[in-house]
Amino acid sequence: MASTNTVRKPSVKNLTIKVCVGTGGLAAGGQEVMNAFSRKLRALGIKADIAKKCVKKTGCRGCCSKDVLVDVRMNGNSATYQHISRNKVERIIQEHIIDGNIVKEWLVGPEYHAFHDRKIKILLKQCGEIDPEDIGDYTSSGGYKGLKKALSGNPSSVVNVIKKSGLRGRGGAGFPTGLKWEICSNEESGQKYIICNADEGDPGAFMDRSVIEGNPHSVIEGMIIGGYAIGAGRGYIYIRAEYPVAISRLRIALKQARKKGFLGKNIYKSGFDFDIRIKEGAGAFVCGEETALMASIEGQRGMPRSKPPFPAQKGLWGKPTIINNVETLSTIPHIISNGAKWFSSIGTKNNSGTKIFSITGKINNTGLIEVPMGISLREVVYDIGGGCPQNRELKAVQTGGPSGGCIPASLIDMPLDYDSLSSVGSMMGSGGMVVMDDTTCMVDMAKFFLEFTQNESCGKCLPCRVGNKRLYERLKKITEGRGKKGDIEFLLSLADDIKITSLCGLGQTAPNPVLSTIKYFRNEYEAHIFEGRCPAGVCEALRQYIVKAEVCKMCGKCFKECPAEAIAWEKKQPAVIDKGKCIKCGRCFEVCPFSAIK
Amino acid sequence: MSNKKIKIILNGVKTACDKDDTVFNAAKKAGVFIPTLCHDMRLEPYGACRMCSVEVKGVSRLLPACSTPVSEGMDVRTESRTVKRVRKRLVSLLLSNHPNDCMRCETSGACKLQNLAYEYKVDGMEYGGERWKLPIRQANPFIVYEPNKCIVCGRCVRICNEIVMAGTIDFTGRGFNTVPDTAFRVARTLSICEFCGQCVSTCPTGALTDKKARGKGRVHEMKRVKTTCSYCGTGCSFYLNVKDDKVVRVSSDFFGPVNQGDLCVKGRYGYDFIHSRDRIKTPLVKRGDKFVKTSWDRAFAIIASNFEKIIKRHGSDSVGAFSSSRCTNEENFLLAKFVRTVFKTNNVDNCARV
Amino acid sequence: MAGLATSLGAGAATNSLAQMPEIDTLFLFGSNPTEAHPIVSIYLKKALRNGAKLIVGDPRKTWMAKRSDVWLNLSPGTNIAMMNGLVHAILKNGWENKEFIKNRTEDFDALREKVKEYNLKTVEKITGVPKQKIIDAARMYSHADKAMIVYGLGVTEHRTGTENAMAIANLALVCGHIGRPSTGIMALRGQNNVQGASDLGPAPNILPGYQPVANADARAKFEKAWNVPILAASGLKSVEMLDMACQGKFRGLYIMGEDPAQTDPNSHEVRRALKSLKFLVVQDIFHTETTQYADVILPGSSFAEKDGTFTNGERRIQRVRKAIEPVAGLADWQIICRIANRMGYPMKYNHPSEIMDEIASLTPIYGGISYDRLERESLQWPCPTKDHPGTKTLYTDLFSRPGGKAKFVALDHKGSGEMPDKEYPFALITGRIREHYNNGSMSRRVPGIMELVPEEHLELNPADAKKMKLKSDDWVSVSSRRGKIKVRVRVTSRSQRGNVFLTFHFPEALSNFLTSEHRDPIAGTPEYKSCAVKIEKLPKSYQA
């Protein structure tokens, strides 16, 4: 603790330290980092009250691969550090805060800026800026002004603004939100409901969680405005129980909003009564489907029902109900505050506004990005995502989660909007984006998604329950080298039938990964079935290990490690693998220091 | 309910139907048959089996006729190539997870799945893949459950929850392993089950069968006699299934004006008394403290002479008769007539009050 | 049924079961349909699912009571006070249907004066039901659009049974809730053919079709058809026959298909009467408590062995069809004919359809019924002619009383014949459970049912059980002033404090040894639903 001897009164003004404590940040030790800052600042004699106020928790800012992210703002300047842990805190305090020298080697790199500084941000703007557990932070940055504005007009004018803005539902199919509200507001009923769908179930997708964790009030404000527009007196937030941080922040936010009078009776003296309850889901993927979600809120098994009638006509407990997802609802206050024109000027025609994507998979910069609609896939993958690791070749991008489709690299210049995506056999979905390079086997990938969807099928309708299971079984067979002539046709025709006969969105879209991979990568299927090989070298059963004689340095390491004694080697001779004896364990591949085995 | 008529085009024919009709009902009224497995007139439309999928012009998917409301000008095709292909597909998918042992199944001959397999000429063998191997459940005194034969149409679940409101069965598991069962798979007890057998009555396959009728005869061997229940005063109708002059089963009369196929535990399973060993099978006459068998003629002679004697000595008003609300109208009328014409008194009453 | 006949004209349910799902307010009174009438309960559950409001009047916390909007948990035997209280509340608040009362009823003033005595404080004291609940129920029922009262044996099986039914009619008439689809009064009948047996004349004062023997025209019609003179004076009711037997004045009895020795209350007295008879013929399918006293036992035929018709609680006449040959060779109708022929009155029928033709020719309400028609359609009486479609809803324009108007009857609360006291502190209610039926002669011969419900249980409230240190399955003796039985206890909140419940399905623990001798003086219906008993714990060593 040498530094304690060199205390001099630092000239600290307006010090703010923002520590990311979203789920990603917390997992990386965000809370400990926060505590360390508070403790040490106090110990160092920097005024306690500054320490108390200046260390702020913030929600997720998207770039979770760099967590814990810490902003240090001082005397009007700001620096963002990445990968901060508890034991790095002292040095930042000493060098940056006390000595005024930024710790350069810990600063975020260009990827962070590519991620963050690009394009317009609406929803994620406040995430990472404001304290999600302090309503004052939200209101002082313009929060609940949209609500006030909405309540000063009549409900139909709110519906009109949303209609004019061109906002489309961010949860999946992109149904125009204003139109949905209008249908519901025209229904005559003493009781109506508005539900926030926060049952984010796509593997690898976490935009809803991040929005709620970073800015819960924006969702609440959106719901109140929606409730006013359609005439609902009660809202429900249906959220996965696996999101404990988001749930606790929502609870805090609801309590604060009630205290401030944004929820409850006679909001803003408009005569409008509204309150919100939280309903925790039990982690069923299908409960993201709106009718299954309502069944779950009603206390029944989460199973979808046939539409029509649509929820806007007959929903929760038979009453007209609007279901919007988190992203849609948190956009609402911005549209009301800034006007329909402002919103529709962002993005493209028929696809206005921004969309959050979560990019994962074989890409350098993983995380959340908010981009305007219509941006090209290329910009996302290369300019923001930084391309595939090790400069590998991009093969495809899966959008729309497990029910989406994969887009081949050849279509890299397509715009990302609802209509373009569905025209190539994929969908927007909730905005999940899985990037694949040439080490991804497309058959295996289709199998992975099918395994997920058939497991998550509610079991109600036959094509989804049995059909998707049979699709999955056949894909498994192919990846295990037991494919037969006719399997591709079998998959295509079964997938087609499932798509047109299934009851809900889950079943109707589950075969998409199969169909789109066969459409764009039929040669990979054929290689598996007819040539007994997996071009990407992923499918264990089909893998054939061969020593590239020209690369082999004849070290004999593979010979020594092979558990099946399938490798012949003599000094100064390249090794040879006996296909008959090889058990395809991959040990030789792993140990070869010269990548001579493929 | 509105009686407003609208027009749809059904297989190319303009057809009038009620505004509130579903496509399935409209077709039924027009005499167009659409196959279904999960639909029961007693239940709300469900749309799970998809057998009733039809093509509607302008909709890229097929729509389930059972739960799709009609709309003006709707152009519906119930037997298009796609529809037929899809039905074939659905039946074969069901058979791909079905024991297909019709030769020893109780329901053979009355099984909806069997009929569809026959009609669409499929066996589901092309899929291979996993089949359920679940144990048969026989703890219940009235109902046997063979889950492997279940096609997960949800009819048993729905009749138990929607109609009986007993909540005994619901779905368990997810995906391919979704199957109706009791909570925690415990055997049914009186506290959770009404033993009404409504689930059996609606099961389209042999998954749920009446335990007492198992092995007592196949469907085509039965004489089915429609009659009215003899327990309480509701007046439910059902079919007595008779083989070799023995009542071996009660089955639902789905067109019964009172009960539409619904029955309670007594109506459906309370028929054993008919062939009980305790039945009185011959006239009996008291000798001392004992009853001894006698012929009908002898019994009638004793009855006639005794009543005649009493009437002669003490007058008509010293005799009378009780009739029963358990007997038929004709018998009650006849006894009332008997007392007034034979006994020549008004001393006749029914114990019609319990 | 005499109650509804007095008020409305006919002793029958006013509506059809199929109209029940459309009800918007259901008033269920003295009926536990989920146990006693499971299929009726399915209709009622449908109404509830469609959003109907539910008022339940029952001392027991039944399935329906648990789901009710208002549960009037009245003390046993306080029905009239309850109904008068409801009418009081309705009149006080001006919720009555003045136009209906003016145009379609008579004697309203008498009722209005009478119910003035029943202010809600008084009613609360008599029935034990809080004032507010009575007001809530009155508001709910009177403000309904389609309101139906469904009542069961909890109304009729009291010594004031007939008056109880009139009190219910008063309530419905005050609100004008009668004579429209899904709006009226439905009485749930206990036995399969109670309605038919009432309709077709085995009664001392009426000929088939409710034609009084006192009516000369009616008598003339039957005398001509049957070719015998018919006495104008009413005969003896069943109870009176038994009473006279005890006195030695009634000597010969023919019982077809009944078991009064078990199912009539105060069984000891009934048995003494049967023993006193000079000659007793009993026709039944099983040996019963009653057959023990017979001189000749004739084998009856079950419903599976004969052709005929039953008339259900909604006046629907339905076919019974022969599925198997009569076990003993003759069906019951054949037996009656053979005895008549033997005694010199010719009864020649080839088939029950010919009996129905005779019924149709003599009984206007069944005038249009024939087996041919019943093959094609389902009919509810009144169906006077061959082309009449039958009647789903009674009294749509006129009541079937002279003048076509319904009658209000001013009634006083009398209470049960026997009330709990210091010595016998519990009120015993008897009734049914779903699995069994009546004396059990049918249901106890179903092995599966006996597996589920092998024996009688006394239902006892948890608080009472705690006080008496009883738990479920303990043995107790239950005794009244008339007898004593031994049963196991089931502790359940279905019974309220001070009330206990038994069925009458088990001869080895026959609740009718306990029930009282009180009867309804008009219909003769016994007071099964309320008597006073005491309960004593039996030692642990006791085994049945």
Layout of helices and strands:
The complex is a heterotrimer of chains A (598), B (354) and C (544).
Chain A: E1 16-20, H1 23-27, H2 30-43, H3 48-54, E2 55-58, E3 70-74, E4 77-81, H4 89-98, H5 110-116, H6 135-140, H7 145-152, H8 155-165, H9 177-186, E5 193-198, H10 207-214, H11 216-230, E6 234-240, H12 244-259, E7 264-267, E8 272-281, H13 290-297, E9 321-325, H14 326-338, H15 340-344, E10 347-348, E11 351-352, E12 354-361, E13 367-372, H16 377-384, E14 394-399, E15 405-408, H17 418-423, E16 432-437, H18 442-456, H19 462-479, H20 487-501, H21 505-509, H22 512-530, H23 557-561, E17 567-568, E18 576-577, H24 587-591
Parallel strand pairs in A: 1-2, 5-6, 5-9, 6-8, 12-16
Antiparallel strand pairs in A: 1-3, 3-4, 7-8, 10-11, 12-13, 14-15, 14-16, 17-18
Chain B: E1 5-10, E2 13-18, H1 23-29, E3 53-56, E4 63-64, E5 75-77, H2 81-95, H3 112-120, E6 143-145, H4 155-163, E7 169-172, E8 179-182, H5 198-202, E9 208-210, E10 223-228, E11 237-243, E12 246-252, H6 265-269, E13 284-287, E14 290-293, H7 296-314, E15 319-323, H8 329-343, E16 348-350
Parallel strand pairs in B: 1-5, 15-16
Antiparallel strand pairs in B: 1-2, 3-4, 3-5, 6-9, 7-8, 10-11, 11-12, 13-14
Helix pairs in contact in B: 2-3
Chain C: H1 2-8, E1 25-29, H2 33-36, H3 38-49, E2 53-57, H4 63-66, E3 70-72, H5 79-92, H6 98-104, E4 105-106, H7 108-116, H8 120-127, H9 131-142, E5 147-151, H10 153-156, H11 161-175, E6 184-187, H12 194-199, E7 206-207, E8 211-212, H13 216-226, H14 238-246, E9 252-256, H15 260-263, H16 267-276, E10 279-284, E11 296-299, E12 308-311, E13 316-320, H17 332-342, H18 352-362, H19 371-376, E14 379-380, E15 406-407, E16 426-431, H20 447-452, E17 457-460, H21 462-467, E18 475-479, E19 484-491, E20 499-503, E21 531-537
Parallel strand pairs in C: 1-2, 1-5, 2-3, 4-15, 5-6, 9-10, 10-11, 16-20, 17-19
Antiparallel strand pairs in C: 7-8, 12-13, 13-14, 16-21, 17-20, 18-19, 18-21
Helix pairs in contact in C: 1-11, 5-7, 5-8, 5-9, 5-11, 14-16
